[in-house]
Amino acid sequence: MNIQLRRKRVSRSAGGDFFLFTVLAAGGVFMALPLVLVISNAFKPLNELFLYPPQFFVRNPTLVNFQDLFVLMSQSWVPMTRYFFNSIFVVTVGTGGHVILSSMGAYSLAKHDFPGGKLFDQIVVLSLMFAPQVVAIPNYLTMTYLGWIDNYAALVVPAWAFSLGLYLMRQFMVSIPDEMLEAARIDGAGELRIFWKIAMPIVKPAWLTLIILSIQRLWRQTGGRFIYTEQLKPLPYALQQIQAAGIARAGVSAAVMLLMLIIPVAVFVFNQSKVVETMGHSGID
Range of 20's domain? Predict the structure, then answer.
């Protein structure tokens, strides 16, 4: 007996669509409120920042907070361009190395059988359970032994070994058809060429997501535990020192918070669709 299975179609009324849109829009507005508040505070004069009850939106926008921040930066004995360079260098080198090494490791785990491969895969998953604070002391001892204290390597090399990137890339690499790779090998392509020309273009959403996550993580690095020379410290350290003055620099602190959010938020907004696609393949909610 031939049984014909028909796929059920989900049908919604116009009222249901409107209700769903309204709920999602309300949720989106609610989640955007902290970002709107940060932007609003950055342009508030001091008398509005200290109003009680506090006002959510700015009434008399001003650029005084940014002007004061510029004056404080110009008075620093280390040029602010040096802090910018340090952050950009750490973010660029750390992100590039993380994407390349995670992709190569994920390709080996997903598409090659070797002794201990399954055990290594379980170790990668297990490593996701440890918070950074748990391994802070072992990391410091390791950096001391290697002689990387007060060196860019103390921030860059650990970023290359971030296990979340390896896990995400492996989940995507598994979905690549083995037949496609075998066809490339029959045609004479080497493993490195297959990796760069076939595997990497297919998993583009995954490595774009890695770039976003790595930039957001490295942009906040202050280097506090590993970097002691002022000329090597990244930009977040300098901005934190400005904020440390307390209530006297409330306006400047509001401007600093906005500047620290611009880069991570902008990178995420322009690539959010890739993040959603990657999380769907990896099984992360």
Answer: 14-62
Looking at the structure, tell me whether residues 28 and 128 fall in a common domain. no
Using CA atoms, how far apart are residues 25 and 188, in angstroms rounded to an integer? 52
Number of folded domains that form the chain: 2
The CATH number for 112's domain is: 1.10.3720.10
- Round to whole Å and give the CA distance between 267 and 17: 30
Same domain, 111 and 29: no
For the chain, list residues with pLDDT below 50: 1-5, 8, 282-285
Residue 97 · residue 210 · CB < 8 Å? no
244-277: per-residue pLDDT in tens?
766 777 788 888 888 888 877 777 777 666 666 5
DSSP of 210-271: HHHHHHHHHHT---TTT--SGGG--HHHHHHHHHTTGGGGHHHHHHHHHHHHHHHHHHHHHH
The predicted pLDDT at position 89 comes to: 92
Task: Write down the pLDDT at residue 274.
Answer: 60
* Closest of 130, 134, 120 to residue 167, by C-alpha: 120
Q: End-to-end alpha-carbon separation of the chain, Å? A: 41
CB neighbours of residue 88 within 10 Å: 14
Q: Which residues contact 97 (CB under 8 A, 6 or more apart)?
A: 156, 159, 160
* DSSP class per residue in 147-185: T-TTSTHHHHHHHHT-HHHHHHHHHHHTTS-HHHHHHHH
Structure confidence at residue 284 (pLDDT): 45
Residue for token pair 């404080």: 72
